[in-house]
Structure formats: C-alpha cells, structure tokens
C-alpha cells in the first residue's frame, strides 16, 4: 500500500470519527506522532520484529485515533481497517492493543504503565548492547500517577541515555505542575526541552538532540483546552 | 538447612552464568542475597516500577525474574502484573517469599494469604508452591527455560522431605474413604492429621493449572467422592477448580486454608497462626474426622 503524507491524516482520521473538520485538529498527540514516525524513529512495517528497531510506547492510550491514522499513513495498517474502528472484530479499539495491531509496541489505556515499562525496555536493550532508542509518550495529567515518578527517578539514576519521554502537555491535569512539567524530570537527572507541540521543526530538533549519559524528556506544549 | 530463598538465588545465579537472557529485578528485599551483577537490578523501594521494569525487560527480549516479599510483589503492584505482563502478553517469573504468615511478628502488612487467589483471577499464569527447598531448584530451572508467566511462592514453611517435581498431583498415600489434597508445605501436617484415616493423600505443588484429571482419577479410585482441599493460603482458593474437576461426579468438597472472615491482629509464631486457622495437626485431623468418619467406624 502507498505511504501517505501529513496532509492525508485528516481523511484517515475521519474514517474513524466521521468528522474531518474538527476532531483531528484537536488531537494533541498528532504532530508529535507524525514527526516521530516520519523523521525520528528507526522503524518500518517490515521490521516490526527486528530487535534493533527503535521502540515507541504510547502510554497515553486514550483517544488513539491519531496513532492509528499515523500507523495507517506509514503502512502498518491498511486504511480500510480504520473503517472497522471499535467494532467487535476490529483490531482497533479505544485503547490500542499490541497483540492485535501490527507495529503497536504497548497495550495501553490504564495510565502510568508505559514509562516504567519503557525504563525496563531501555535497560534490557542496553544490557544486550543494542543501540535502539526507546520513546514513550505520556500526558501531563497522566503524570498524576505515582508509578511515573518511581520510573522518572530510576531512569535518571541509571543514566538511560537511549530513553526519551515525550510529555504532551495540554495542561489537562486538575492540580497541575507548578514551575512546569520539565522540572520534575530535571531534578532527577534528565535533560529536558520544552517546545511547541505543533511545531514540527522544533519537535524534530528536540527529539534528535544529544543527551549523553542521561535520559531526555521533551515536553510538547499544546494549547490548553485542546483536550484529546 | 538451605532455605527456599537461598536455593532460588543460587539456582538463578547458576543459570545466569550461561543464559544471557536471564535478568533479575529487585526492590531492596534480598538485594544482599544476590551477588552484584549487571543483570541484577535493584530499583529501590519502587514495586510498581519493579514489575513494569520486569515487563520492559521481557519486551526487549530478556527473561525477567521479579522478586520481593509477597504482599509487595503481588498485592501492591497487582495492576502491573495484570497489565504489564498479562495484557501485554509477555512472559516472566515472579518469585515471592513470606507466604501467608512466615514472619507473623511483622503483622498484617507482611502477610499475603490472598496471593494465589489473586493470580487465580488472571489467565495464563502457572502457579507453583514448593513444599521443600530441594523442589525449588528444578522449578526455577524449568521457569527460566520457559517463555510464559510463572509465579513461584516460596516459604519458610517446609516438609521434612522433598518429592519429585512434577506438573500434576502426586499420590503420596492411597486409601478408600476419600481424597485429601495437600498443597506445598501442608503435606507433612496433612499426613500426620490423616495418619489414622483411610484416605488417599495427593501432594500438589503446581496449583495453576490445576490437575483436574489427577483429582478425578484419585476420586474414581475411592469408595466415596469426598474431597478435602488443604491449602496454605486463603481457604477455598482452588475450590472452584476442584468443583469443576468433579462436575460429573456427585461429591462433597471441603476447603481448609487461611480464614477469610477475620483479620487476626496477633503476632507470635507461624505455628500459632496455623492453630488459629485450624491448619495445625489438631485442626486438620478434626476436619478429617468430620468428613471421613472416625477410623473405628470405617473399619
């Protein structure tokens, strides 16, 4: 199947939501996902079992339409599969399932699981001498879950230099993070960048910066109220 | 004598020497039992991360061993066990110490009589409950060589002699009046409590999967389909599986184990707690008499 471009995402999105005009534009993860899959991750549909592929773990699994649309645009999914979204025998649910969808590395939905798993993945790849990087995407409100903070401290102390956490920050957490999300990582030894979550060039530069000896967090800010 | 934990540690370290897939995740507990090794990772007092990291190691292609005290391994991060291993469909070896009340002076926080029942809510887990340190080595080697999900429940409680490690139930004694199933460390107590009873005694160390065929075969060899299930954890944990095994046989089933109806706010010794739960020789013998009749009447 032909690969698609960023401009094709609204139509792919619309195959699930039936609304090309509004919902896709509100997807807070869309630009981050596109930049990662288009320009950053060393992955492809014919290498989903390659032990040296980069790993991308979508921890914030709620509202996965942007993720499915990107996977379809990049050839992991036939676009017609999007039409079956959430049907009984569809591989595509409201939360992604790695057992059902080719290329999905994490079954998510319950918050606070992806980051600890990503830390373990990064440790495991390092132990095996592999250079693959592990990316995990979380939401700012997801950071409410204490399990993340166990993992943030641990990753910093272990100096996991091939681990990247992307925090899509649309200020959706009820109690917020005074001083900013990045500080929670910096104090534990992470390198941190905070960028405009819609700016592809800024996202790319943030994802590809050097961070020797320590993990990297990229806080991708999305306008408040862009909730999805 | 060498403890179950020490046999576990020694066996894992031995396998690690030639199997680079094996990695251990700890949360402080037992950190000094393992020799320093790049594949022994102590995450600190972070049990959610401990299980998540174990799953991540599996995701990267390794065979994780995740180990700590039972309540902190199974109860505190239970959703991580359910999702990070089960829902991700990843394999791993979870190994607990402490049992139901190995160290009762520490109180309720260090007791996990519900651990096996919790695993019973999750598909795809093998649960093994050794009754002697010599049974632990073969169980650990088998677990490390496999790719699936295994829970090993180690304890300070143990029988005087080991039995060969098999998947199904082992007939230790054959009788005519019924069947008693003794799980793991309960065997010696059950043998003593049934000394004067004419019953078959089965020894179980693998409780998930449950040896339904073995139980049914034993029941078919006795005169009455009466089954007494004696488990060292929450009473009735395997009762539904015994019931299923005997679905086509009119039968009686009674389950002994750690009581569900009360929290014992008491310290003392593990033997004190056995007595409080009727899991000592007196308590089990009384249940045997009620179920299988007095030996004089049976003669």
TrEMBL record, chain A:
GO function terms (MF aspect): magnesium ion binding
Signal peptide positions (record): none
Pfam families named in the record: Transketolase_N
InterPro entries: THDP-binding, Transketolase_N
Name of the protein in question: Transketolase
Domain Transketolase N-terminal: 22-210
From TrEMBL, chain B:
Coiled-coil regions listed: none
A family per Pfam: Transket_pyr
GO MF assignments: magnesium ion binding
InterPro entries assigned: PDH/Transketolase, THDP-binding, Transketo_C/PFOR_II, Transketolase-like_Pyr-bd
Domain Transketolase-like pyrimidine-binding: 2-158
Name of protein: Transketolase
Domain of life: Bacteria
